[in-house]
């Protein structure tokens, strides 16, 4: 499976996108301002054998996004 970077993954549309991609078998790198909800989502998705990493940051901060990607 491919690895997909999802921003705003803690809630709403970002979470729904992450869940849909996981259902399709993608490994995920999740980014959100609030790490708690992202970690909870990652824990649930990892039970399906997927690789999921969590990152805290603001998508408008290029440095934070770059650090998460690396």
Tell me the layout of helices and strands.
Elements: E1 3-7, H1 12-23, E2 27-32, H2 35-46, E3 52-56, H3 62-69
Parallel strand pairs: 1-2, 2-3
What is the overall shape? globular
Considering DSSP H and I runs of 4 or more, what fraction of the residues is helical?
40-55%
Order of helices and strands: EHEHEH
Tally of strands? 3
Regions with little confidence, pLDDT below 50 for 5+ residues: none
Question: What does the model show?
Answer:
By secondary structure, the protein is an alpha/beta fold. The protein is built from 3 helices and 3 strands, in the order E-H-E-H-E-H. The chain has helices at residues 12-23, 35-46, 62-69; strands at residues 3-7, 27-32, 52-56. It has a 3-stranded parallel β-sheet, sandwiched between helices. The longest helix has 12 residues, at 12-23. The chain is globular and about 30 Å long. The mean pLDDT is 93.
Attribute tags:
70 residues; alpha/beta; 3-stranded parallel β-sheet; 3 helices; 3 strands; 46% helix; 23% strand
Brief account:
With 70 residues, this protein is an alpha/beta fold. It has three helices and three strands; from the N terminus they run βαβαβα.
